[in-house]
Amino acid sequence: MSESSVSESSGSAGRPVRLAASLDGPRRAPVVVLGNSMGTTRDVWDPQLLALGDGFRLLRYEHRGHGGSPAPPGPYAIADLAADVLRLLDDFGIERASYCGISLGGMIGLWLAANAPDRIDVLGLCCTSAYMPAAAQAYRDRAVHVRRVGMAPVAAQVVERWFTPAFRGRDPATVAASRAALEGVDPEGYAGCCEAIAAMDQRASLAAIVAPTLVIAGAEDPATPPWHGGVIARGIRNSRLMVIRGASHLANVSAPGEITAALRAHLVAAPSAGRAGRSVASRQDADLPAAADLPASPARQPTRPAAR
Q1: Interhelix angle 78-91/104-115, nearest 10 degrees
Q2: Which of 16, 115, 174, 186 is 20 to 30 Å apart from 81, CA to CA?
Q3: In what order do the strands lie in the sheet with 213-218?
Q4: What is the gyration radius of the CA atoms in the chain, in angstroms?
Q5: What is the CATH number of domain 2-274?
Q6: Are 267 and 52 in contact (CB under 8 A)?
Q7: Residue 103, SS3?
């Protein structure tokens, strides 16, 4: 069964945005939220859908300015983007969920697990970072640039960093599709996300994360090299680091077998006890959709599926 949220702006500065999203899978299955990297859409998770959709309900969403989500004027902060996801959970009536995120999606996952631990029970991170000071000015410069000239002039350079030369030569169709998706992103939304990454420093909050965490890094990722994953794994008590040889920034696309197997094993093995959190049905929020627009009941979180 598939459900979709309505894409609309919050109508108030500083308030969460209602994102474009889809919720697919058996109504009573545990929910896994899939967060994309900046410049991609929910389609970036296509290599994982079949395996992760077997026994889980998948909530995929689009960042501000991506895939039909609104793009209010920036700058944004990681906390703003995470608040959008919390609103999405509330809109769909989801008390608790597992969360897997790539790059910016992973940064959002870190914030959620540290600041809303009652909502996130398992965390999977791919090619991400808690702090990127060396790249901060480059992200700020890119924000200025795309606001001025749009996405097309930066697309080729950005996509080149997502895949190794070997993969680009082996699968040019995937590279071209990734570039087309990037060119379709709203420049204001992309710029605001750039500014969120530039301003981010989540190192101090890593110790607050209690969700079992898998950190995956691409050995050839120029954006978030493996040491970024190492910082995260050292900071989170219940975590482990996995490095994928021959993979660049979109490791889940270029090495789908390894990434999918690792994420599924992590999601299945994580403890399921205590998943029943507080109900969000009693929360009062004037911006929530009308009852007719919500799922029939809050998503229940039963026993996890068996590993395959």
Answers
A1: 70
A2: 174
A3: 2-5, 21-24, 57-61, 31-35, 97-102, 120-126, 213-218, 239-244
A4: 18
A5: 3.40.50.1820
A6: yes
A7: coil
Strand partners, 94: 299
pLDDT of residue 302: 42
Residue 18, strand partner residues: 8
Distance in angstroms (rounded) separating the CA atoms of residues 298 and 284: 15
144-184, pLDDT tens digit by residue?
999 999 999 999 999 999 999 999 999 999 999 999 999 99
Task: Determine the Cα–Cα distance for residues 23 and 3; give it in Å rounded to an integer.
Answer: 5
The span from the CA of 248 to the CA of 254, in Å, is 8
Torsion of CA 107, 111, 112, 115, to 10 degrees: 170
Beta strands of 82-227 (E only): which ranges? 97-102, 120-126, 213-218
Which residues 6+ apart lie within 8 Å of 67 measured at CB? 20, 41, 42
Q: Where are the domains of the chain?
A: 2-274
CA angle 193, 198, 203 (to 5 degrees): 110
Provide the pLDDT confidence category of residue 15 given band limits of 50, 70 and 90: confident
**Could you tell me how many helices (H) and strands (E) the chain has, helices first?**
11, 8
